[in-house]
Please model this.
Amino acid sequence: MVNDTDDDICSTVDDIEKYKAKFRKLSTALDKLILDEVEPISAARLNALFDRWIQVKKTFEKMCFWLSEFDLKQYQGEIDALEGRLAKMRKIHFSFKHKIDLIQKPLKESCIEAKPDGNSNKEQIRHGTIEGVTNEEIVLDNQSRHLNDHGAQNYVLNRLENCVVWILDEIFSLKLMNLKNCKVYAIPINGSVLVEKCEKITLHLAARQLRIHETKYGDFYICTHTFPVIENSRHLRGAPYNLKGERVKKLLQKYRLNTENESWKHVRDFGYSEPSWTVIPQDQIKAVEKEM
Model:
C-alpha cells in the first residue's frame, strides 16, 4: 500500500503501478494548477506550487529503483518540464523556503573532494552529484552537507575513473553511473542503490534495495533487505558486506538490515541466458581494515 510517509519507498515490483498512479495524480494536479494560475503570482502561492512539485519528485524517487531506463527518462522529463514552467513563473527573485535552484547550472565552486588527511580540493559536485573525477580519493561525510541543498539525502557519482570513494554520510539513496576502475565503501544506506553502466568496480554496500544495470566486471560486498536485481550485466561476483565498526553496526540495526540473510547469494538475474552473478571465492575476498 502506498502512503505519504517520508521514509516509505516502493519495496516490491507489485507496488510499482500504485506509485505510478500516485505520480500521475500529483503531476496532473500540479499541471492544472499551473495552467489556471493568474500572473503576477505571489511568493506564498509560488511556494505552495513548489511544495507540490517536491511531492511529485519525492514520489518519483521512491519508485525509481524499479523503473526501466525508458520509464526513468519519461518520468524525469515530466519533472523537469514542471520545474521549468515554475521557473518561468518566477519573474522576480522570491525567497523560497525550499532553497533549491529551479534552473540548474554547473557550479564548480560548490564542489568539494575531501581527503582523509584533511586536505580539500575542489572538483565538481552539486546537489549531491560528483562527476568527471579521475585518480582521486574522495571522502563524503556529514561535514560536506552544506554543499548539498537537499540535506545530503542522495548522492550521484557519475563518470569517475580510478577513484576510491568513502561514503560516511547517512543518506537515503545512491546512484553510481559510468564508473570505471573504482572502489566505493559506504556505511549502511536507508534506501536504494542503483548501479548503471559501470565497469571493473568493487563496491561495499548495505541498503534496502540494490539494482544493477548494464554493468560488467564488478565485485559486490553487499547486504540488502530485498534480493538484488541484475539487468543486462555480466561477470559480476558477490560476497557478504564486510565493513566494520560501531557506527556500521548501529546503522544496520537502525535500518533493519540483516547481514545473515545471505541476500548476496540470491539475486534476480535478467537479460542474458547465462548467469551473470557468481560467489567470490573465500581466498579472493578483500578484507577492509579501516573501521567506520
In short: Residues 114 and 120 are 5 Å apart (CA to CA). Residues 1-7, 92-126, 146-152 have pLDDT under 50 and may be disordered. The first helix runs from residue 16 to 36.
